[in-house]
Specification:
alpha+beta, ten-stranded mixed β-sheet, nine-stranded antiparallel β-sheet
Length: 635
């Protein structure tokens, strides 16, 4: 009974996470008074029917037609039933009150829709939308739009779509449908590739996702409005926090005790490398021949899908010259731009008031209004990139992104923990630490942060707890005598050696506050002081076995100096005068990411307890073998 209670509570948490937690407070009466709800089973070209809810403004008529705005999701379109109204519809309260025909659909194999569920449905390039029977999310989107245009009255012939997180994947996959009525798509925090988003980062497993597997790895027996996987949710009883729970879990092979019949867990275990299984589930190679407008949305502190929005925007820009393709990145965690919190914080850091409302009115609302209600060929008042500077705490506009004004700058690791733009002169110089998988570096100082379905606050968390550990290297600049803005891509280029035969390297870009930094008045934890705070601005992990290829891993040669290069993703952050720029390097970030045994094994998901060994890691900062961070500097 207790296990079922915990499972239920965890599911409730996840359900809220994807629905009302990210929706602005809205009175159900408004939706009921202003919209008429309809429910349909829409047939796809292969005969499978997808459950779809449509809200039509009550004042719609032949003289007052509305565009459609659609979301396709694997997370349920509840509430079900023609008389059960959602308290919030549309991407925001702004658009809900402006009125659109709002469409929600359960994707195939989920909840009330028929069919078989597939994670990250592979896209089929070659198909005739009217003849070919190869089915993917693009074809389902095409068939849905086609049916809606013919069967829902008082539409103006234009369709837009949006979705956050996994629904963001369905949005960008649907953007490839090439339906002529599709005029605007907004993939938001979109999953693009499960090997670099969400479940993996550069080959490392996102272990804090472990509890989510029942949600993604169990087929529903038939169309249902119930949470068919709820009794398979794990109740982590007896653990005081995530660090404790996952250490007790032990090697990943122990996950089979819970997920022996979970198809997605078994797929994860059997495909540790970036092989054909993962490659064909990536939407990125297919982002071409897009004709309509796209607004990609992301959050700078998104612990789940940061790779997705940046990669999708850049790939669309490269492959589809001339289309209206823009990006916005705000000071948000995963999807938090879809609700207004008043005072906008991520963890301890305050970014201003009503930032989500600004985004909803000035960016998202304008985008959809223009392309769905105005003349789509007219000029829309949106820049190429509208990005939030998380240091100066303001939105900035860019005509091009990355900015051609940015200067590629190299920050060199130096002896004695220094970080400078000059190359080190020593012929032999390195820093070293002992990495022990049985005592991994915590991903957060807060115990509660390490226990949940997915990570969140660690993306901007205070790193003073890590800087004081002997298994974390610290390099920092002198106190800055002027502002320095990093705006664009960041690359870590490490020269390392190890006494083991495999290793992870987790690199953090940190903003060190002055000793006299005052607290802001909205501090969530009154015991935290911003004086000398070490705010993580960006971070990423790299599994060294994949340094040359993600599909063909290679062991490290003990004692041999080796290059390990990887992206930390983009950033727009001004390090203010009086602050310092810091880089931290460590070999674990637990339990956000799984532990590397540090002894090379063919498949870490099948590693045994005895495979986990201590190793001494060296990071070199000498002439000819200097570890560096390369960044785009705007000023």
């Amino acid at each position: 009974m207790k296990k079922k209670l915990y499972a239920f509570l965890f599911f409730v948490f996840l359900g809220l996470f994807f629905t009302d937690t990210f929706a602005q407070t809205a009175d159900t009466a408004f939706v009921r008074n202003n919209y008429q709800k309809y429910e349909y089973q829409i047939p796809m070209r292969d005969g499978i029917k997808l459950f779809t809810i449509v809200y039509v403004p009550k004042d719609a008529s032949n003289k007052n037609k509305y565009p459609m705005i659609m979301q396709r999701t694997c997370y349920s379109v509840a509430p079900y039933g023609p008389n059960a109204y959602s308290r919030h519809i549309s991407p925001s309260d702004v658009m809900m009150r402006e009125k659109y025909i709002v469409v929600y659909q359960d994707v195939r194999g989920r909840y009330m829709s028929e069919g078989t569920w597939t994670n990250m449905t592979p896209h089929h390039e070659k198909k005739d939308p009217k003849k070919d029977k190869s089915i993917d999310e693009a074809s389902d989107t095409y068939d849905t739009i086609d049916w809606l245009l013919k069967n829902v009255k008082y539409n103006n012939g234009r369709v837009g779509q949006w979705g956050i997180s996994y629904p963001g994947f369905y949005t960008i996959a649907g953007a490839l449908s090439q339906h002529p009525a599709l005029k605007a798509s907004s993939p938001q925090a979109p999953v693009s590739d499960f090997y670099f988003d969400d479940f993996h980062h550069n080959g490392a497993f996102t272990e804090e996702y472990f509890l989510t597997y029942p949600l993604f790895g169990i087929q529903h027996p038939a169309p249902t409005s119930k949470d068919w996987f709820a009794d398979k949710m794990i109740a982590p009883i007896g653990a005081r926090d995530g660090y404790d729970y996952y250490m007790k879990l032990g090697p990943l092979k122990n996950g089979n005790k819970y997920y022996a019949d979970n198809f997605f867990w078994q797929e994860t275990v059997e495909h540790p490398n970036y092989d054909e299984f993962w490659q064909k589930r990536s939407i990125v190679p297919h982002l071409k021949n897009v004709k309509h407008a796209v607004l990609t949305v992301g959050g700078w502190f998104d612990a789940e899908d940061l790779y997705g929005p940046l990669t999708i925007y850049k790939t669309l820009e490269k492959n589809n010259p001339g289309i209206f393709n823009v990006i916005t990145m705000g000071p948000f965690g995963h999807g938090r731009w879809s609700r207004e919190t008043g005072h906008t914080l991520h963890g301890d850091i305050y970014f201003g008031d009503s930032v989500a409302t600004f985004y909803q009115r000035e960016i998202e609302g304008k985008f959809f209004h223009h392309f769905l209600k105005d003349k789509e060929d007219g000029k829309v008042d949106l820049p190429e990139a509208w990005l939030f500077d998380t240091g100066t705490k303001e939105y900035k506009k860019f005509d091009r992104y990355p900015s051609p004004a940015a200067k590629k700058t190299t920050f060199y690791f130096q002896a004695n923990g220094k970080l400078a733009t000059s190359e080190p002169g020593e012929s032999q110089s390195f820093s070293e630490y002992i990495s022990d998988p049985m005592k991994p570096v915590p991903s957060s100082e807060e115990e509660a942060e390490m226990f949940g379905f997915t990570p969140f606050k660690y993306m901007s968390g205070d790193q003073r707890f890590a800087a004081s550990r002997p298994d974390v290297l610290v390099f920092q600049t002198d106190v800055l005598d002027q502002d320095i803005t990093l705006g664009g891509e960041i690359m870590a280029k490490l020269k390392i050696s190890t006494t083991g035969s495999d290793a992870d390297f987790f690199v953090k870009l940190v903003d060190v506050y002055p000793d006299n930094e005052p607290n802001h008045k909205y501090m969530p934890n009154k015991n935290v002081m911003l004086a000398s705070y070490q705010q993580m601005v960006r971070s990423e992990i790299m599994r060294a076995r994949f340094r040359n290829s993600f599909s063909k891993p290679e062991p490290l040669t003990p004692g041999q100096v080796t290059e390990v290069n990887f992206r930390l993703q983009d950033v727009l952050h001004t390090f203010k005068k009086g602050h310092r720029i810091m880089i931290q390097v460590q070999s674990s970030c637990f339990p956000v990411f799984d532990r590397n045994p540090q002894k090379y094994v063919e498949n870490i998901y099948k590693a045994n307890e005895e495979d986990f060994i201590k190793a001494t890691q060296r990071v070199y900062h000498q002439k000819g073998n200097a570890s560096v961070i390369e960044a785009d500097v705007l000023n």
